[in-house]
Structures are given as structure tokens and as C-alpha cells.
Design a protein that fits this description.
Elements (H helix, E strand, L loop, with lengths): L4 H33 L5 H16 L5 H17 L1
Helix pairs in contact: 1-2, 2-3
Length: 81
């Protein structure tokens, strides 16, 4: 239990942000899984996933290095297919 009003507010904000961040990460995972499981993903699908990854990195939900690594792997997989 928080000792001060500001600590209680901070706790509420943290819980709210964690819930939103969790949903964004889950959405990213499902997008990436759909690309990996597709026999031949087209460029538009890959572009959509890369855009979602960039947005998550911009908002601080995932680290920018993680975003760059995921994008590189997507591009590498697309080039191989």
C-alpha cells in the first residue's frame, strides 16, 4: 500500500501503462508469428509489422535495439523467401 497520495497515483499509472504495454507486446508477437508462419509473406505485410515495431520502440514499449534486431530478422527472412 502506498504511503502518500502521489505514490498511490504513481502506482495506478504504472498499472495502467503496464496493461497497455502488455497488449502492444502481445499484438507485436502475433503479427510476427503470422509473418513467420506464412509461406511467402508479401512486402505490405512485412511493412505493416515493421511499422508496428517502430511505433512500439518510439513509445518506449520495446528497446530500440530490440526493434532493430526484429526488423533485421524480418527483412532477412523476406529476402530468403
Amino acid at each position: 500500500m502506498a504511503n502518500t497520495r502521489s505514490a498511490a497515483k504513481r502506482s495506478r499509472q504504472t498499472q495502467r501503462r503496464a496493461l497497455l504495454n502488455r497488449s502492444v507486446k502481445a499484438h507485436l508477437r502475433s503479427l510476427q508469428k503470422s509473418i513467420r508462419s506464412a509461406p511467402a509473406p508479401n512486402a505490405d505485410e512485412v511493412r505493416l509489422v515493421i511499422s508496428a515495431i517502430d511505433k512500439a520502440a518510439k513509445r518506449g514499449i520495446i528497446h530500440r535495439n530490440v526493434a532493430n534486431r526484429r526488423k533485421a530478422r524480418l527483412n532477412k527472412a523476406q529476402a530468403a523467401k
